[in-house]
Structures are given as structure tokens and as C-alpha cells.
Amino acid sequence: MKKWYAVIGDPIAQSMSPRMHDTWFRENGIDASYVPIHVKGEHLEEAVASLKRLGCSGWNVTVPHKSAIIPYLDRVDEEARRMNAVNTVKVLEDGTLFGTNTDGRGFVHSLQENGATPQEVGNLLIIGAGGAAAGISFALASAGFGPIAITNRTIEKAKQMSDSLVGSAALSLQDAEQDISKFGLVVQTTSVGMNFAKSGIPLDPTGISEGAIVADIIYNPLQTEFLRHAREAGGMTMNGVGMFVHQGALAFELWTGIYPDTKKMIQTISTELGGK
Ligand code: ATR
Fold first, then answer.
1. Atom 25 in ligand 1: which residue has the minimum CA distance?
2. Which amino acids bring their CB within 6 angstroms of ligand 1?
3. 157 C-alpha vs ligand 1 centroid, how far in Å?
4. Closest ligand 1 atom to 134 CA
5. Which residues of 104-139 are buried (b: 16+ CB within 10 A; e: fewer)?
6. Is the separation of the CB atoms in 42 and 95 below 8 Å?
């Protein structure tokens, strides 16, 4: 029987995942399809039961259901638990619903695709202490990157996060800005700068050292104000397209066993977003 996959969210029309996964199914000769499904919060439980009953093999979860879906799954892994968010579900052979989160590992894969190594990067700074920051710092630490410093507008949250991550420390936005030249990698994980309406920067990156990698997980716009400042200061900038494509590639791999072509996909999506 032809397999099918989905992405659930509210809203969902803007999602680039259906085209991305359909392209990968085609490129890999897999007879499967991927559909966007608009699910309102009050229908989430019913939607999960229906997806299972209708034979869906797996699905992605996007805003606003990433945390709310957890009680309806049978098992979630450590990544998802740390982020308190699931972005990928796989229906196992026995019908069990397994949830994971590929965002953090997606970021690390994107970083590695750009040639970064733990030795080269050295000290790194995470800006933000929400779910995205938790997933990315855990994945970075698991891949051998660090030491990790975490800074956040609400310093208590940065402290909480560093308490649960061995080898990390919290610091204030002011201290992070002052010491920014010490970091070989700076990762911006907050929503500041997303969609032109929310312009601004969480901290000023202009003191970074020449050649440091400065990443923003936002991909719309392709270049946030934060990245523009970092680039002008001599940083090597990375937008969020790579992370988006790799989180999808990891979901695709979980479902099919194949890691799809990410380079071409990153180009296609960047061209599309750049043309907007
Ligand atoms: P996500 O799951 O996308 O990480 P989240 O868990 O809501 O989202 O976390 C949002 C992060 O962005 C937090 O670190 C938040 O800082 P606070 O903990 O101080 O709220 C940060 N953030 C959001 N808006 C911000 C702003 N205007 N300035 C600085 N940080 C901001």
C-alpha cells in the first residue's frame, strides 16, 4: 500500500514541508505522499487518533501543537523531552506512536555541512533559553561542541538551562555582549528579527572576532538585522534555511532510512525565499 505522511499545524498553508518531502520521495523513487493538514488546538487529540486510524506512517508537528501533542504519544525521546516539544512522529510497526525532535540535530548537521568542527569553534554562545535553545545546545554538546555559554533576556531561564546541561554556564546579555569576541560560534535562537514586523536584535554582535560563525535560526527573512550586523563586523553568517532542511532530512531518514539531498534543497528554498 502507498505510504503517506503529513504535517499538522495551525496555520499550515505556509508550510514548505510538503513540497520538500514530496521532492525527496520523488528523488529517491519512494512511492509515498505528504499532505498538510490544518488542525485546530481543540481537535488535536482527535486528529492524532484519526491519523493513526487512517494509516498515516508518520507526521511532522508545527506551531502551535509541538508541546500539546506529547500526552497523545506513547513514547518520546530525550531530545523531545528536553525541548518539551515534538516535531516528528513515527508510527511504529506495532502501532506505537513515537515522538522526537529533529530541530537541534538539524542545526548541528547544518553547521557540520558548513565545515565547522568542535576544535575550530571552541567556546560558543547560545542566545535564548526557550525550546529551540534547549534542543540546539543539547545537540551541540552531544556532538562534542563546547564549552557552551547561554545568555537570555530572562537570566533565570538561562541558569535553569545551564543547570541541566553539563559543561555549560549562564551569563547576562550585557556580559555576553562585552565578551562576544571570545566565541567562535554565536547562535541566535530567539524570535527577535522574525518576519519583518519584529525587527531588532537581542544583543549587539559587532564585537565578534573576524571569521567567527554567527548563526540565526530564523529563515524568514533570510538575513535578520542580527545577521546583517554580524556580517558587517566580519562574521561568517548562517541563516536558518540549513537547519530547516536538515530537521526535515532527519525526519525523512527516520521514516525511510534514507538521508536525502540537502544541498540542492537548501538552494531551492533560499532562492524561493530570496525572491519574495
Ligand atoms: P522557542 O521554542 O522558539 O525557543 P520559546 O520557548 O517561547 O520559543 O522561547 C523564546 C525565546 O526567545 C526566549 O529565550 C525568550 O526570552 P525570555 O525567556 O526572556 O522570554 C526570547 N525572546 C522572545 N522575545 C524576545 C525579545 N523581544 N528580546 C529578547 N529575547 C526574546
1. 192
2. 128-133, 152-154, 157, 189-192, 202
3. 10
4. 4
5. bbbbbbbbeeeebebeebebbbbbbbbbbbbbbbbb
6. no
Give the pLDDT confidence of 183-237 residue by residue, as tens digits: 999 999 999 988 766 678 999 999 999 999 999 999 999 999 999 999 999 999 9
Q: Is 21 left (phi over 0), alpha (psi -120 to 50) or beta?
A: alpha
pLDDT at 199: 74
Mutate to test the pocket of ligand 1, among 84, 153, 243 (most ligand atoms within 8 A of CB): 153
- β-partners of residue 36 are 7
Strand partners, 213: 185, 236
Residue nearest to atom 3 of ligand 1 (CA): 132
Could you tell me the pTM of the whole model? Answer: 0.96
Could you give the percent of the chain with pLDDT greater than 90? 95
Alpha carbon distance 54, 95 (integer Å): 12
The count of residues in the chain is: 276
Measured between alpha carbons, how far is 154 from 34 in angstroms, rounded to an integer?
39
Chain mean position to CA 174? 26
Is residue 77 classed as helix, strand or coil in its secondary structure? coil
159 in active site: no
With residue 103 as reference, give the H or E element that holds it.
helix 103-113
Query: What is the spatial order of strands in the sheet that 32-38 belongs to?
Result: 32-38, 3-9, 58-61, 88-91, 97-100, 75-76
Beta carbons of 271 and 248 less than 8 angstroms apart? no
- Distance from residue 66's CA to the centre of ligand 1 (Å): 16
> 167 and 148 in contact (C-beta within 8 Å)?
yes
